[in-house]
Design brief:
alpha+beta, 12-stranded mixed sheet, 5-stranded mixed sheet, 7 helices, 34% strand, globular, binds magnesium ion
Length: 292
């Protein structure tokens, strides 16, 4: 199933996208307020079946899709250097990286999350080097700590797409951590919806790409990940509880801007399209200017 959040008739709702229409979960009297509450409540499989059968159908052109999980319980976890060719291009550009022995984990501020069609807003007084990174996102369904890789997939609700927008000038000025350069407001577009694990099946071997103004910048496969999804979940949950609605960004393939010759960065008016096979397309325009 495709589980989406959306604005409809001036209110925020969520539901299931199928067969050219959307089922509005909030038309049911006992509906959780949002996708996060659906996961917190538990037993989401049977509730989603009910939504797809009993909830009111709505035409997709009446809704505006919003980010599926706008307020996760923790800052999203992200992986650095998890695709082989991206590791090589980053090593050549920075002359310092080597193959990680375990997943490199960092986080992005939850306050940086925006949705599909939202603007990536760049304040030129803060950064002049804004880069793109398309990523597969894992959405957690079930609480767990010290999750072994063999059972990790049971904790996955589904998958969506992120653009791990990165201010490279801030990132590389901060030795040893990337939080500031990765967490500016609007720097974490996520969407357009979540494709559930039972629908997507194996999330390896999916084409993953990013275009700027229609020009292909990144094109890879999720099978190029250095650490697999079960290994990522085992690592992220070591001594740390993952909770329903937590988000994990699994790294980006090669083709980012800062490793290009000459380096490329996003500019005012650029239109960025992040796409993953069998999940969908996440589109955002860049706006350079001081925040109102
Ligand atoms: Mg990234």
């Amino acid at each position: 199933m495709r589980v989406a959040a959306f604005a409809l008739d001036g209110r925020q709702s969520w539901g299931v996208v199928a067969y050219g229409e959307i089922r509005d979960a909030c038309s049911l009297p006992d509906a959780p307020a949002n996708i996060l509450q659906l996961l917190v409540r538990g037993n989401h499989e049977s509730y989603l079946r009910r939504v797809s059968e009993d909830a009111r159908p709505v035409s997709p052109n009446r809704v505006r899709f919003t980010t599926p999980v706008s307020a996760p319980p923790s800052d999203p976890i992200a992986l650095g250097l998890n695709y082989r060719k991206h590791l090589v291009e980053a090593a050549q550009a920075t002359k310092q990286e080597s193959r990680p022995k375990r997943p490199i984990l960092f986080s992005k501020a939850a306050s940086s999350i925006v949705g599909p069609d939202d603007v990536i807003r760049v304040d030129p007084a803060v950064t002049g080097q804004v880069d793109w990174e398309v990523e597969l996102v894992i959405v957690i369904s079930k609480e767990g700590r010290d999750i072994p890789a063999a059972h990790a997939i049971d904790h996955v609700f589904g998958y969506t797409i992120a653009n791990d927008v990165s201010a490279r000038d801030l990132q590389f000025a901060d030795a040893g951590q990337w939080y500031r350069g990765k967490s500016l407001d609007t720097f974490c577009p996520i969407g357009p919806w979540i494709v559930t694990r039972d629908e997507l099946g194996d999330a390896s071997g999916l084409a993953i790409s990013l275009k700027v103004n229609g020009v292909e910048k990144q094109l890879g496969s999720t099978s190029e990940m250095i650490f697999s999804i079960p290994e990522i979940l085992e690592s992220c949950s070591q001594g740390r509880t993952l909770r329903p609605g937590d988000l994990i960004l699994t790294g980006t393939p090669d083709g980012v801007g800062f490793t290009r010759t000459p380096p490329e960065f996003l500019a005012d008016g650029d239109f960025v399209t992040a796409e993953i096979e069998r999940i969908g397309r996440l589109e955002n325009r860049v706006l350079v200017g001081r925040f109102p």
